[in-house]
């Protein structure tokens, strides 16, 4: 499930259908609160090149790996929008690994 959506619900009450949707929502929220990348709607493999973003928006890196040279290695955890726009201006959010 990528986004919370009422898809599949009808105007007629169906307890099974409501319970299934509620389970999906709970599963996504639990995964998100545990930091699971699969539960993020905005995880990408590279800096955003399309879409509209506001200053402060964060896009997670779905394929983080260590980069840099000895003594200055880091991991790009994602990109933060510093100037609103379409797609906006992004800067890498890095975490030093100490390598």
Describe this entry's structure for a reader.
This protein starts with 14 loop residues before the first helix and ends with a strand. It is elongated. It folds into 2 domains: 1-41, no CATH class; 42-99, no CATH class. The chain is 19% helix and 23% strand. A hairpin with a 6-residue loop joins β2 (66-67) and β3 (74-83). The model has no long low-confidence stretch (mean pLDDT 83). It is built from 1 helix and 4 strands, in the order αββββ. The chain has one helix at 15-33; strands at residues 58-60, 66-67, 74-83, 89-96. Strands 1, 2, 3 and 4 form a 4-stranded antiparallel sheet that branches. The protein is of the alpha+beta class and 99 residues long.
Order of helices and strands: HEEEE
Overall tally of domains:
2
How much helicity do the residues have? 10-25%
Total of DSSP H or I helical runs spanning 4+ residues = 1
Mean pLDDT: 83
Distance N to C terminus: 36 Å
Radius of gyration: 18 Å
Unreliable runs, pLDDT <50, ≥5 residues?
Answer: none
- Biggest pleated-sheet summary: 4 strands, antiparallel
Oligomer: single chain
What's this, in brief?
This protein is α+β, with helices and mostly antiparallel strands and 99 residues long.
Give the SSE map.
Blueprint: H1 15-33, E1 58-60, E2 66-67, E3 74-83, E4 89-96
Antiparallel strand pairs: 1-3, 2-3, 3-4
State the main characteristics:
single chain; alpha+beta; 2 domains; 4-stranded antiparallel β-sheet; 1 helix; elongated
């Amino acid at each position: 499930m990528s986004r919370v959506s009422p898809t599949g619900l009808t105007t007629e009450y169906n307890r099974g259908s409501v319970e299934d949707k509620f389970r999906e929502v709970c599963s996504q929220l639990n995964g998100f609160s545990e930091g699971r990348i699969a539960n993020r709607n905005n995880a990408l493999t590279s800096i955003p090149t399309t879409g509209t973003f506001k200053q402060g928006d964060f896009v997670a890196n779905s394929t983080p790996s260590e980069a840099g040279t000895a003594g200055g290695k880091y991991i790009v955890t994602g990109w933060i929008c510093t100037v609103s726009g379409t797609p906006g201006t992004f800067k890498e959010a890095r975490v030093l690994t100490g390598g």
